[in-house]
Inverse folding.
């Protein structure tokens, strides 16, 4: 007599999204601690010329078909608490997404498989790009056709998180262009629209100059 062997599949034994997040919390917090320490080390660091290239090169999460990257971008002010960084102001990264999940409890089970991949990629983040505002002059609107130009100066730090080494710095000055074109609705008023366009022009120029200055060391797109 022969017995038929039946494989029993356990249902519901997989971990929820919340459980996955808690499993990765210690490692994520260890990476966060490295970022916090940058505020002290970079503040004392001298300017360093960027290398001609990096191996591996910088890759942003948004610039890959696989949706993963090896670089996190942070504003200087966010180094005291990286998880509080406004992620709408920087290019997306697995590390910041994971920190967001840890800071904001996940409703429901979440996609545990996808979350695990994101946490793994986040922990493996190789580079940190830190943007530090140094000085600025706000442009002033004289009337809807005339303005006094402004500027924003920033220092960009490129840090290897895995080796705790500063790879290079870049000083950038973004400025308002000579002329600015903008659209507005009549009920909003031309002056208000012009004032917004002035400030946006500096932000646009800053992102372009960051992209241009880092182009040799990776796939950098500050079009967020």
């Amino acid at each position: 007599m022969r017995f038929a062997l039946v494989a029993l599949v356990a249902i519901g034994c997989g971990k929820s999204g919340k459980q996955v997040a808690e499993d990765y919390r210690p490692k994520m917090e260890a990476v966060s601690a490295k970022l916090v320490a940058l505020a002290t080390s970079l503040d004392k660091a001298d300017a360093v010329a960027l290398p001609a290239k990096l191996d591996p090169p910088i890759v942003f999460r948004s610039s890959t078909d696989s949706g993963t990257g090896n670089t996190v971008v942070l504003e200087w002010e966010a180094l005291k608490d990286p998880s509080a960084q406004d992620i709408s102001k920087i290019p997306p990264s697995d590390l910041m997404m994971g920190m967001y999940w840890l800071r904001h409890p996940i409703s429901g089970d979440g996609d545990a498989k996808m979350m695990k991949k994101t946490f793994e990629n986040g922990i493996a983040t190789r580079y940190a790009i830190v943007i530090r505002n140094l000085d600025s002059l706000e442009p002033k609107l004289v009337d809807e056709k005339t303005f006094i130009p402004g500027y924003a100066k920033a220092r960009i730090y490129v840090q290897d998180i895995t080796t705790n080494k500063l790879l290079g710095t870049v000083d950038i000055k973004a400025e308002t262009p000579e002329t600015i074109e903008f659209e507005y609705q009549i009920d909003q008023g031309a002056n208000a629209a012009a004032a917004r366009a002035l400030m946006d022009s500096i932000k646009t120029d800053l992102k372009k100059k960051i992209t241009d200055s880092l182009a040799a060391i990776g796939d950098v797109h500050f079009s967020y």
Notes: Strands lie at 58-59, 71-75, 127-137, 140-143, 146-148, 151-160, 165-175, 218-219. Residues 17-129 form one domain. Residues 83 and 100 are 6 Å apart (CA to CA).
